[in-house]
Amino acid sequence: MSRLLSFTLLALPVAIFAAGTGTKDDPLTISSVEEFVQFRDAVNDSSEYGGVKLVDGAKGLWFSLKSDIDLSSVCGKGVGSWTPIGPFAGSFNGGGHTISNLYMDETYLKSVGVFGQLFGGEDTLVIKDVHLADFTMNFETETIYGGAVASQAVMGNIVISDVIVENLNFTLKGDGVLTNGFSAMIGGVIGNTVATSLEISNSNISGSITSTDGETYIGGIMGAAPSPVILHDNDVDVDIKVVNSDGGFGGLVGEMVSKFDISGNVSKGDIKADSLKGYSYVGGIFGVNPFASMGDVLENCKNTGKIEASGTELAVGGIAGFLSGNAQVKISNVTNEGEVVVAALGTGSEPIVGGVAGIYDVETAEGLVNQANITVKNASTTYAGGIGGYIRDLQDSVTLKECENHGDIVIQNDNEDEDDWTVYAAGIMGNAGEAKAVAIEGRNVADGEINVDGKALLREAFVSTIVYVKGPVPVIALDDVVDHVELNVKELSPKKSARDDDDKGAGDKDGEGIVSALTEPANFAVMPYGRSLQISRATAGAKYAVFDMQGNMVRWGTLGEGVTNVQIPAAGSYLVKVGTRTKLFTIK
C-alpha cells in the first residue's frame, strides 16, 4: 500500500502537467523548462500540449507562464541554437516571470526571437508581462528579421505590453548581398510589422544591437514599421552600433513608413553609426519617416542618448534623421537632450543635421526643444539648425510654435585641401529650402552659439540667429522670439565670397546677399512713419531688405548713418531684414 502511494505521488507532477483548457480565464500553464520546450514543439508541429491540440499556431489559445525559465540547458555555445516558437497565433502571459539565457547563432535563420512570426486573428494576439534577460543573438546572414520577443508581426491586431528586455546582445554581420531590398530589420522587441496594427506599451528595453555591412533598419524597439504602430510609455536604453551599412537607425524605430501613434516614450541609448554608405538616416526616436499619414501622432517623447554618425550622405537629428508631418499630423512636446556629432567622409559630402530633425518636412509643430550641442566636421556643405537642418520642398509653408534651441552649433572643417566649403546654419532652422513661408509663432528661443571655423577655405557662410532663407521667403509672425545667439564665423576665403557667387544668383537684386548673414548681425530698430519706415540703431553700411507677406521683396538697399527712411508702396504688414535679424511691422 505504501509503495503504491509512493508511486502515485511521484507520478502526480506528470498528471497535472499543463493544467488549463487554453481559454483566457483558464489558460494552459507552463511551469518548467521542459514544458516550455514542449509548448514550443507543439506549436511548431501542430501536436498536443496539455491534452490540447495546437493547430494553426495555437490560434486563439491562451498560455500562462508560472515560473522562471532558464534556457541555458537548452541553447548556448556548445549546446545549440534556440528555435523560435511559431508562427504563433495564440496569446502569452508571462506573469512577471523571467525567460533567460536564450541563445541563437544559426547563420541563415531569417526569423529571430523567442517567438517567430506573430499572427493575430479575429481576436487580438497578446504577449504581456514577461521578463526576458541575457539574450545573445549572433548572425552572419543576407536577410533577417528579429527581436527579443519576436521576428515579425504578420497579420491581425497584436499587443505587446509590460515586457522587460534586459541585457540583450544582438550582433549581425551581413555580407553586403541584399535580398528583397533588405539585409536586416532588427529591434529590441521585434523586427518589423505588416500586421493590421501592432501596439507596444509600458515596456522597458535595454541592451545593445550591433550591425556590420549591408542595408539595415535598426531600432531600440523595432527595425521597421511598414504597417500601423502604436508605441506608448516605453523606456528604451538600447545602444546601437553600425559600421559600413546604410538604412535607418533610431532609438525606437529605424524606419517608420506607415501610420503611427508615438507618445510618452524615452530613448536613452547611444547611437554610433560609422562609415555609413549610401543615404542613411539616424535619429534618437526614429531614423526616418518619409511619409506622413492622416492622424499620425508624435508627442511627449524624449531622447537623451548621444548620436554619432559618419558618412557621405547623412540626415541626422536628435529625434529623427528625416521627420515628416502634414496638417493632419500632431507633433508636439518633443525634446532632445543627446549630443549630436556628425563627421563627413569624402569630398562633396552634404550632411543635414538638426537638434530635432535633419531633414524637416513638418507643416506644423509645437514645443520642439533641443538642449544639446551639435557638431559637424569636415563637410563640403553643411546644413545645421537647432531644430531642423533643412526644410524639404514638399511643404508650401512651415509653422514652428513655442520651439527652443539651447545647444551650441559647431561647424568645423580642417581639410586644408577643401576649397569649396559652404555652410548654412541657424539657431532654429538651418535652411528654409524651397518653403514658400516659414512662420515662427509664440515664444521661441534660440540662445546658443554658432561657431564656424577650420583650415578649409570657406566659400560661403549663410548663418542666422533664427532661420536662413534663400531669396524672398518670408519669415512671418515673429511675435516673440528670444534670439541671443552668438555668431562666430571665420572670414570668407579671399578666393570666393557669397557676394560674387554667380552660380547661385547671389546679389542685392534677388535678395540673396541681403538675407544671408556673413557676420555678426546688426541690431536695429524700426518704426512706421506715415507711408514710410525708419530704420535706426544699425551699423552704417549694413544691407536691408523689406518683404511683403507674399514674400515679394519691395525695397532693398544700404543703411546710412543715424536714421534711414524707406518709402513703402502701400498699407499692410511687412518684414524688414537687416543682417540676420527680422522685424515685423504694419503701415496703416
What would you note in describing this structure?
This protein has a 41-stranded parallel sheet that branches. The protein has a 10-stranded parallel sheet with strand order 10-14-18-22-26-30-33-37-41-46, with no helix packed on it. Strands 57-56-59-60 form a 4-stranded antiparallel sheet. The longest helix has 14 residues, at 2-15. With 588 residues, the chain is mainly beta. The model is unreliable at 1-16, 177-181 and 493-522 (pLDDT under 50). It is elongated. The chain contains 3 helices and 60 strands. A hairpin with a 2-residue loop joins β59 and β60. The protein starts with a helix and ends with a strand.
Total helix count?
3
The shape is: elongated
Helix content: under 10%
- The radius of gyration is 29 Å
Ranges where pLDDT stays below 50 over 5 or more residues in a row are 1-16, 177-181, 493-522
In whole angstroms, how far apart are the ends?
110 Å
Biggest sheet record: 41 strands, parallel
Strand content bin = over 45%
The class by helix and strand makeup works out as mainly beta
Nearest-integer average pLDDT: 83
How many individual β-strands? 60
